[in-house]
Structure to design on (397 residues):
């Protein structure tokens, strides 16, 4: 049995360490070298031509392919159970390149109001300029989404859990409705990661990520990835190689390094977020907590069915609104106030100044994001310390 075949039957932790790395690299290097160069030379023009026309494997120019990037793509392809994968400079590059590859003027895309801020900007500002019809539905009104899908569309774009409201979309049901119309299904799996959710096993055609978040996991590299059906990934790769939103080799190296501990980290994130959510839910100064692992969560049942874990991100509101938020956050000692999530350190931020700062107050209202919401990406610190930190900060407001 080939080692590639064997890798399909091993656990996720083994996959993330070994996928794409079953051969030794340059001069026997056991770890992936950072191939930090723009181009690849040939001594034989016929071989060069065969590689350039994709008759032979190899690399021509790093805007197209690069050996370090290839390892990152292979790891994600195998972790997401996909036929193919292609990488990008950022998560937004993955999302915009995918949408602009798949959609043409007069096409229709059905999505929801709660997508990531940058994604909702593409839907509201950029796609309409190219005469693409965008329908943004209420995120958890599955009947309404199904109705819009049935009117006909080329792409159904989903994100679950959503950022920053942690709403859950019913993947199986909506994928079925989309495929009945012949639409391509794209799922942003950034919040869940393949440790907690496998959209391809539920029927999705394409899964994409901001690799900047949990996949890299250390807030030190940006990147994006699209995994899925070979023919679709090939089209998206072609758009990206010409468009030029290519991942850098140094970032790819850092993302590979991060991916090796993905399973370990996500299990810890899951446990810590669950415990912090439970703690916050009972605190008298907290108004509401959004976390799909809580039984009180609107979509807890579906989350339990389609997810293996509930992720490291929660959001909550305080009594006293944005005033209380501005007082609380600077009091936290072990939490960065920053526009980020998915890192080993705990990170807090109001979507109003972080994930949805690009949106106007009216747009945030339309998207259902309270101005006083706090998003908290719970890190892998010891949970007793995280809870104690919130306790001391909450006691002072
Ligand atoms: C951060 C994020 C993105 C965008 O990724 P970048 O790497 O910042 O471009 C897309 N989707 C979700 C869910 C995100 O959290």
């Amino acid at each position: 049995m080939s080692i590639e075949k064997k890798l399909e039957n091993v656990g996720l932790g083994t996959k993330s360490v070994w996928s794409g790395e079953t051969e030794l690299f340059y001069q026997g290097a056991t770890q992936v070298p950072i191939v930090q160069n723009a181009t690849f030379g040939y001594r034989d023009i016929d071989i060069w031509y065969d590689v350039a026309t994709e008759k032979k494997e190899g690399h021509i120019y790093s805007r197209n392919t690069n050996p370090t990037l290839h390892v990152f793509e292979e790891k994600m392809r195998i972790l997401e159970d996909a036929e193919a994968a292609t990488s990008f400079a950022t998560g937004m590059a993955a999302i915009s390149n995918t949408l602009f590859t798949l959609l043409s003027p007069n096409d229709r895309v059905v999505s929801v109001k709660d997508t990531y801020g940058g994604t909702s900007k593409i839907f509201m500002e950029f796609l309409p300029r190219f005469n693409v019809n965008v329908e943004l539905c209420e995120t958890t009104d599955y009947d309404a989404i199904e109705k819009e899908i049935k009117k006909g569309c080329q792409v159904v774009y989903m994100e679950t859990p959503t950022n920053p409201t942690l709403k859950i979309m019913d993947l199986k049901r909506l994928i079925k409705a989309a495929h009945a119309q012949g639409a391509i299904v794209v799922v942003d799996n950034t919040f869940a990661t393949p440790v907690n959710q496998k959209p391809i096993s539920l029927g999705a055609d394409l899964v994409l990520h901001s690799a900047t978040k949990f996949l890299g996991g250390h807030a030190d590299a940006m990147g994006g990835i699209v995994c899925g059906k070979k023919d679709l990934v090939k089209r998206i790769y072609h758009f990206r190689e010409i468009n030029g939103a290519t991942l850098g080799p140094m970032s790819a190296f850092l993302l590979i390094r991060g991916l090796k501990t993905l399973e370990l980290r996500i299990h810890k994130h899951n446990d810590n977020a669950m415990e912090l959510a439970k703690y916050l839910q009972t605190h008298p100064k907290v108004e509401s907590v959004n976390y799909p692992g809580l039984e009180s969560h609107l979509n807890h049942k579906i989350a339990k069915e389609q997810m293996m874990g509930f992720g490291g991100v929660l959001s909550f509101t305080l009594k006293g609104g944005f005033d209380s938020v501005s007082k609380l956050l600077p009091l936290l000692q072990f939490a960065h106030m920053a526009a980020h999530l998915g890192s080993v350190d705990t990170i807090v931020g109001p979507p109003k100044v972080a994930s949805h700062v690009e949106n106007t107050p009216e747009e945030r209202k339309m998207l259902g994001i309270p101005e006083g919401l706090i998003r908290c990406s719970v890190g892998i610190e010891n949970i007793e310390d995280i809870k104690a930190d919130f306790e001391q900060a909450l006691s002072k407001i």
Remarks:
- The pocket of pyridoxal-5'-phosphate is lined by residues 90-92, 95, 116, 118, 159, 163, 188, 190-191, 210, 212-213, 222, 224 (CB under 6 Å).
- The longest helix spans residues 262-282.
- The mean pLDDT is 95.
